[in-house]
């Protein structure tokens, strides 16, 4: 039975590949990195590309024209017998649907063993491709070793490498995010309410660190007071580049947005943290003059939408997890020190860090110097830039 097949043989290149399941349980930024893989599979002739995702990224793919079906595995904490029983029944129904689809290939983008085990033992998928990190790839039939986790090259390149087992090349590495007319209209409604109709330019700022690190997202946050000082300086130097500031982030970051409002002085700004969906946020980002943000999912969303961006990185290596492919639209700024930076290695970070020196010591003056020396503002659309 193919259920128990652990063959190392390459998939027959002459065989018709009809049904593929992609597994990606992580956050927005990493999820966007699989969009070039999805496109390459579709262009190679795969008829049905399904996704098994975590609970936060469904909206990223629901309008992707290359995706056939999306399955969501919600692992959020539930309490009480009735809620746990309901969760169990939904999980059984999910696994039954995946088993019935009879996938030929599963591509697991996680460094964990549990998904490959399910693909083998429950879903009966004969070809299981993924990463072998700390010998967790036992249930994979085709694996790429990750001795040091993701390092030295972009995560997206690691993802593309997995398609080599299928003899498929990824020719276009740009990430994709597809907005609908409804998304655009929802964004326009917000802009009209804020007096930003008629293409009046605005800046989007993301002072938070996203949801992937939970309460440890503080480790990815440049100080709010620095954001305020930087924005005031940019506004004084290049007032024609943006008239207002829109602050985006999650519901739990609303107080952070309020704190930033207090730091902006005479700059007109609005706190939208927690008040928009990810798709409406995408529509707002697409029309922004540029985005200024900490490392997080909205950086990659902006890059997928070709919106110019300035991204501030601390404990995470931007050469691995930064916007990719890096273009003139994206300016990534990091601190030269301390020596422990980047501390995010092998999928772990230093949660005990108190001072977060890699970001606290990244001065506003250094960021301004990087912006000016790169001529980032001058390279924005000509109609937004005026001396």
Q: Main β-sheet: number of strands, strand sense, barrel status? A: 6 strands, parallel
Helix residue percentage: 25-40%
How far the N terminus sits from the C terminus, by CA atoms, comes to 71 Å
What's the count of strands? 12
Task: Give the topology string: H per helix, E per strand.
Answer: EHHEHEHEHEEHHEHEHEHEHEHEHH
Q: Are there runs of 5+ residues with pLDDT below 50, and where? A: 1-10
Q: What's the helix count? A: 14
**Secondary-structure arrangement, i.e. CATH architecture of the largest domain:** 3-Layer(aba) Sandwich
Radius of gyration: 22 Å
User: CATH topology of the largest domain, which one?
Assistant: Rossmann fold
Strand content: 5-15%
General shape: globular
Strand order of the largest sheet: 3-2-1-4-5-6
What does the model show?
This protein has helices spanning 28-32, 35-43, 58-61, 81-100, 114-121, 155-161, 181-193, 224-237, 254-263, 278-287, 297-304, 318-321, 357-360, 364-373; strands at residues 19-24, 48-53, 69-72, 105-108, 127-132, 142-145, 202-206, 244-247, 269-271, 290-294, 309-313, 330-334. The protein folds into two domains: 2-166, Glycogen Phosphorylase B (Rossmann fold, 3-Layer(aba) Sandwich); 182-384, Rossmann fold (3-Layer(aba) Sandwich). The strands form two sheets. The chain has a six-stranded parallel sheet. α7 (181-193) crosses α10 and α8 (224-237) packs across α9. The chain is 33% helix and 15% strand. It has 387 residues and is α/β, with parallel strands linked by helices. α9 (254-263) links the parallel β8 and β9.
């Amino acid at each position: 039975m193919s259920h128990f097949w652990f063959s190392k043989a390459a998939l027959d290149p002459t065989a018709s590949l009809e049904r593929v399941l992609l597994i990606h349980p992580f956050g927005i930024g990493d999820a966007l990195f699989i969009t070039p893989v999805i496109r390459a599979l579709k262009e190679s002739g795969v008829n049905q590309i399904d996704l098994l995702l975590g609970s936060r990224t469904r909206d990223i793919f629901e309008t992707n024209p290359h995706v056939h079906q999306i399955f969501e595995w919600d692992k959020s904490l539930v309490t009480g017998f009735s809620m746990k029983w309901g969760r169990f029944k939904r999980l059984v129904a999910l696994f039954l649907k995946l088993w019935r689809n009879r996938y030929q290939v599963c591509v697991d983008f996680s460094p964990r063993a549990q998904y490959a085990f399910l693909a083998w033992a429950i879903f009966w998928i004969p070809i299981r491709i993924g990463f072998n990190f700390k010998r967790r790839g036992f249930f994979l039939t085709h694996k790429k070793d990750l001795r040091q986790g993701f390092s030295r090259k972009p995560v997206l390149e690691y993802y593309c490498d997995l398609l080599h087992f299928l003899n498929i090349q990824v020719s276009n590495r740009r990430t994709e995010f597809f907005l609908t007319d409804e998304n655009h209209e929802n964004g326009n409604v917000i802009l009209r309410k804020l007096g930003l109709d008629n293409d009046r330019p605005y800046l989007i700022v993301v002072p938070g660190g996203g949801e992937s690190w939970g309460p440890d997202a503080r480790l990815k946050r440049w100080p709010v007071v620095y954001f305020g000082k930087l924005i005031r300086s940019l506004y004084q130097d290049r007032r024609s580049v943006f008239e207002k500031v829109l602050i985006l982030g999650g519901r739990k970051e609303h107080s952070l947005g309020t704190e930033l409002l207090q730091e902006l002085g005479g700059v007109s700004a609005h706190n939208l943290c927690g008040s928009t969906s990810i798709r409406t946020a995408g529509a707002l980002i697409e029309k922004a003059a540029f985005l200024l943000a900490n490392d997080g999912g909205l950086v990659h969303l902006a890059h997928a939408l070709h919106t110019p961006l300035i991204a501030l990185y601390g404990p995470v290596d931007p050469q691995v997890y930064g916007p990719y492919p890096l273009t003139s639209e994206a300016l990534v700024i990091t601190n030269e020190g301390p020596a422990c930076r980047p501390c995010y290695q092998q999928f772990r970070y230093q949660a005990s860090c108190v001072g977060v020196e890699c970001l606290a010591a990244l001065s506003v003056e250094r960021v301004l110097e990087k912006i000016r020396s790169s001529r980032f503002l001058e390279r924005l659309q000509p109609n937004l830039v005026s001396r």
